[in-house]
């Protein structure tokens, strides 16, 4: 493929290994509301979604409005865990070094709140790599699977969608990237991620970060 001019990374599950812990905590909160789904179904349904989108799904299922601070309480509990420790996705530094060598622009666009994104890239030593180019779903009207966040990130970075690529690990994220008109790479790094679903949604699927630079044409 033609070399991209902008690489947009998701955060959780792509840069940092947080999906398992955060997903389990979110599942507990969701099921406590009376939401009719198993733990495993919650992990699949809400992975990659913004808090706003998740709340809409839960409220539609349980038929009532959640407390105004429900989402904030979850985010505070998650942040408390990740302020202490967070690990990088295996071999993600192989990708970041390849990007640095080419001088390609890069940023992070995540459904998480900005504080979590900032803390995550700082903890794994990639704050300088992204130079503050961090974008949260709280900055746009609609989160993933809508294309708003990725289009916002590309616009702010000064690149057209056609020359931008997205690195994702969730179905809503892949759908958002495809809807934005960008080439999407879907990372399958655990047993929860449905690689077939990502491929059917339009992603080029891979299971090892060391493969990504070649796939992107770097």
Molecular structure report:
- This protein is α/β, with parallel strands linked by helices and 218 residues long.
- It has two domains: 6-17 and 87-215, HAD superfamily/HAD-like (Rossmann fold), CATH 3.40.50; 19-82.
- Helices cover 46% and strands 12% of the residues.
- The protein has eleven helices and six strands.
- It has helices at residues 19-32, 39-46, 51-62, 70-82, 92-102, 114-123, 127-130, 148-157, 171-179, 195-200, 212-215, and strands at residues 6-9, 105-110, 134-136, 164-168, 183-187, 204-206.
- A six-stranded parallel sheet has the order 3-2-1-4-5-6, with helices on both faces.
- Helix 1 (19-32) packs across helix 2 (39-46).
- The chain is globular, with a radius of gyration of 16 Å.
Keywords:
218 residues, alpha/beta, Rossmann fold, 2 domains, 6-stranded parallel sheet, 11 helices, 6 strands, 46% helix, 12% strand, globular
In terms of structural class, how would the helical and strand content be classed? Answer: alpha/beta
Query: What oligomeric state do the depicted chains represent?
Result: single chain
Helix content: 40-55%
What proportion of the residues form beta strands (DSSP E)? 5-15%
Largest sheet: 6 strands, parallel
Q: For the largest beta sheet, what order do the strands appear in spatially?
A: 3-2-1-4-5-6
Extract low-pLDDT stretches: none
Count of DSSP-assigned helices: 11
Structure summary, number of beta strands: 6
